[in-house]
């Protein structure tokens, strides 16, 4: 979305929102804050600042595993973004959202008080991301973040948006695989068992492009299971070399609706989707609502 687009336009077409990834060092954060990018995604690990040469203070830092050192802490990261957002708050097109990606429950639990004390989640979009369940395709190499502990900690952050997904295995040579009904039902059960339906947090489900293209029916089931208690959206993501059936992915996006689907994929894939062609979006959206009662 360009800086001339309106806030209303952003809400009706989430696919226009732009992203910066792995903003895990101070210089990169400076560049992103000076850019038109609208959402800042970054990784949080437990580790050490580079100037802590004796490694005496393990704290939440901006780093993607296996890295355990960074030149910026989570506290400084959030403080800088909050200062920037407050400076531009009168121009909604310049305010930036934050997506905090946690790869371990220890990093998340150790970050709760820092997030509460260093950021204004009630004013500025704040997403808390973690893969909390095992998912496709036969992914046993990545251990999910403990769902019960994740939700217990997340409740201390109030109405932050929960970006909760499945571990996945995919790549250039994959063509078959999907989010199964069993995996979807496990996610709905986890949300309900931990009281997130009653808490009413917005939920966005990060779904891998090549897999979700084969999973329209399952995703309708997921949406229908939680739409009455939570504001449900989807965030389509993809690694650079992932195999993706573009037409099937486009069908998924238009079925779910442009107002319910963030698209965080490489530029070449984004262009192939031709998401500016919105002729069928309203029809598909009505179909999505209707399918919940089939």
Explained architecture:
With 294 residues, the chain is of the alpha/beta class. The chain has two domains: 1-112, no CATH class; 125-293, no CATH class. 37% of the residues lie in helices and 19% in strands. It contains 13 helices and ten strands. Strands 1, 2, 3, 4, 5, 6, 7, 8, 9 and 10 form a ten-stranded mixed beta sheet that branches. It is globular, with a radius of gyration of 19 Å. One of its GO terms (cellular component) is extracellular space. InterPro entries: Menorin_dom. Residues 13-269 form the Menorin-like domain. It comes from Anopheles maculatus.
The largest sheet, given as strand count, sense and whether it forms a barrel, is: 10 strands, mixed
**Span between N and C termini?**
35 Å
Helical fraction equals: 25-40%
Structural class: alpha/beta
**Topology as a string of helices (H) and strands (E):** HEHEEEHEHHEHEHHEHHEHEHH
Domain Menorin-like: 13-269
Organism: Anopheles maculatus
Protein name: Menorin-like domain-containing protein
Family: Belongs to the menorin family.
């Amino acid at each position: 979305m360009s800086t001339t687009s309106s806030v209303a336009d952003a809400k009706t077409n989430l696919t226009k929102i732009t992203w910066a990834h792995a903003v895990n060092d101070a210089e990169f954060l400076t560049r992103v804050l000076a850019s038109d990018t609208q959402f800042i995604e970054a990784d949080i690990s437990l580790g050490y600042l580079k100037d802590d040469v004796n490694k005496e203070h393990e704290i939440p830092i901006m780093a993607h595993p296996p890295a355990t050192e960074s030149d910026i802490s989570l506290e400084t990261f959030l403080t800088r973004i909050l200062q920037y957002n407050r400076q531009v708050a009168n121009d909604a097109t310049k305010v930036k959202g934050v997506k905090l990606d946690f790869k371990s429950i220890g990093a998340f639990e150790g970050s709760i008080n820092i997030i509460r004390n260093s950021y204004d989640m009630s004013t500025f979009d704040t997403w808390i991301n973690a893969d909390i369940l095992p998912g496709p395709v036969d992914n046993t190499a990545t251990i999910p973040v403990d769902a019960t502990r994740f939700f217990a900690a997340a409740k201390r952050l109030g109405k932050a948006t929960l970006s909760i997904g499945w571990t996945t295995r995919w790549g250039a040579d994959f063509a078959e695989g999907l989010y199964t009904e069993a995996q979807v039902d496990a996610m709905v059960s986890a949300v309900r068992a931990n009281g997130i339906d009653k808490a009413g947090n917005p939920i966005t489900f990060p779904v891998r492009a090549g897999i979700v293209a084969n999973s329209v029916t399952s995703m309708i089931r997921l949406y229908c299971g939680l739409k009455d208690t939570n504001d449900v959206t989807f965030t389509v993501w993809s690694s650079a070399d992932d195999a993706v059936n573009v037409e099937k992915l486009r069908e998924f996006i238009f079925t779910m609706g442009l107002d319910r689907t963030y698209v965080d994929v490489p530029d070449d894939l984004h262009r192939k989707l031709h998401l500016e062609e919105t002729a069928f979006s309203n029809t598909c959206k009505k179909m999505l609502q209707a399918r919940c009662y089939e």
